[in-house]
Amino acid sequence: MNKYLNFSPFYFFCLYSALFIILTAVSNYLLYDDALYYESLGDRLDIARIDEIIKQQKFFQKIGYGIVPIQLLLRIFYTSVCLIIGALLSEQNLNFSQCFNIAIKADIIFLLELFVKIDYFAIAGINSLEEMNIRLFSVLQLAGAKETWMLYPLSLLNIFELVYWILLAIFLSNYTKKSFGYSIGFVAKTYGLGLLLWVMFVMFLILNIA
Asked: Are 192 and 182 in contact (CB under 8 A)?
């Protein structure tokens, strides 16, 4: 584990971003084919309109590849800020570079999530575009949601997010030399609180837009 944590965060992020872009491209190519749009939208829109949507989606997908590193960096930075604020308030012997390293190394779980998603839908098949927006092994996938504003919070309750919390705690323990129990509690009080605030903000936007 020490070798993993000691690996340069800069080079790790470059490699991580490149792999994420590659898997995103694979996902777009294998899963978001034209037939999926026709099957999902055929009963609501005419062929010309669907063709237009497909063209727009392919354009935004290309732009999205360049945005992937920015999205990853923002997520990692947000987690790092949550951790460092908690460290300062509780007088933990942590600096921001250590918090950033913890966040970026734990984020690897979301690359695995994307890989699992590609495999899952490639084998199980896809019935609609809406199905693609549901995170695998989440409460949303199991129970569904009747209200639009519940989609996002229920999708966050998934196995990969749980593993992310565990990785944060394990890596945190490596720096602080505290027990895993203490570290997972620290993650809950810092990143957990930050995640809750973010979810409330997203739900507020959804309710106001709706």
From this structure: no
Encoded amino acid at 163, one letter? V
Nearest to 197 by CA among 71, 85, 68, 97: 85
- Whether the CB-CB separation of 161 and 142 falls below 8 Å is answered with no
Cα distance between residue 40 and residue 45, in whole Å: 10
Beta carbons of 18 and 68 less than 8 angstroms apart:
no
Work out the pLDDT band at 6, boundaries 50, 70, 90. very high
For residue 88, give the DSSP letter.
H
Q: What is the pTM of this model?
A: 0.91
Summarised one tens digit per residue, pLDDT across range 19-47 is 999 999 999 988 888 888 888 887 788 88
Instruction: Report pLDDT for 210.
Output: 62
The answer to whether 24 and 197 have CB atoms below 8 angstroms apart is no
Identify the residue whose tokens are 């997908």: 61
- List, as one string, the DSSP characters of 23-74: HHHHHHHHHS-HHHHHHHHTTTS-HHHHHHHHHHHHHHHHHHHHHHHHHHHH
Contact 172/102 with Cβ under 8 angstroms?
yes
